[in-house]
Amino acid sequence: MRQGPAVRRRKLGEELRGLRLGVGLTSREAALLVGWNQSKVSRIETGTSGVKPADVARLLDAYGVADQRLRELLGTLAGTADGGGKGWWHAYRGVIPPQYRDFISLESQASAARTLETSVVPGLLQTPDYARAVTRSALESVPTATVDSLVEVRIARQRVLRAERPLTFSAVLDEAVLRRQVGGREVMRGQLRRVLEMAQLPHVRLQVLPFSTGGYVGLTGSFVIFSFPNTSDLDVVVLDHLTSSLYLERKEDLETYGAAFRTMQAHALSPTDSLDLVAGIRDGV
Questions:
Q1: Which residues, other chains included, contact 136 with Cβ-Cβ below 8 Å and sequence gap of 6+?
Q2: Per-residue pLDDT, 3
Q3: What pLDDT is stored for residue 61 in this prediction?
Q4: CA atoms within 13 Å, Cβ hemisphere of 134
Q5: Per-residue pLDDT tens over the stretch 223-267
Q6: Of 134, 99, 73, 89, whose CA–CA distance to 2 is shortest?
């Protein structure tokens, strides 16, 4: 398990090495093509040093990579949103910590996300009032202006579900998420309405694990699995903790969490029955 920047450097390095080998170049030959020392190419490929997006672009040019989505993704892993500039979240760099910026960057470039939530409604489905109540509960001593900025970030993240090529979003929610009245009855009623609305989008799949399920794998913590276009080698599992996030990149970890998510989907209510449950809880709030 690593912090976000480290896992991204390693993933970027592994992908660049694969692209180099794919065109039959040695690291020395690649370095000569771009005018570097061989040691620089090696450090980038092993993830022991960072790399600027412009340098990534030079390597991709040398390897003849024309796929724009892949170029954008590798640019994101180098620390930007689009391979050539700063993401919208850069404006909030004084408010959100680096690991949250990493999370948003990955989310913005992922093609799909699968998430288990055991405590709160997923951020991509939250209303501003609910997001404010959650943020205030978690950060009691933070100034109001900071809370407002964090809520703005939370809502801005939801653009990925309305984009031209939207994120495919699959969520399994513990029933407790729907019954915990965060922010009070009116806030919760509005939040449940939003969940029902967003679940109508063709690229959003929502399922609920009812209390009757009893214990289940994943009960002890929420997680997100990000999948990316073109290559599964860049997929990553994100585990949230109170003060940090952990990123899991190993194939074994991805397989374990992927299997766990499929198991929870199998035990959860169907999407139709899940929405009926959400509507029933909303009407009773």
A1: 142, 147
A2: 45
A3: 95
A4: 20
A5: 999 998 766 767 889 987 655 678 888 889 999 999 999 999 999
A6: 99
Tens digit of each residue's pLDDT (9 = 90 or more) over 68-116 = 888 887 887 776 433 334 678 888 888 888 778 878 888 888 899 999 9
* CA 63 – CA 102 distance, rounded (Å): 27
Quote the pTM value. Answer: 0.80
Contact 211, 245 (CB under 8 A): no
Q: List the structure tokens of 135.
A: 């943020």
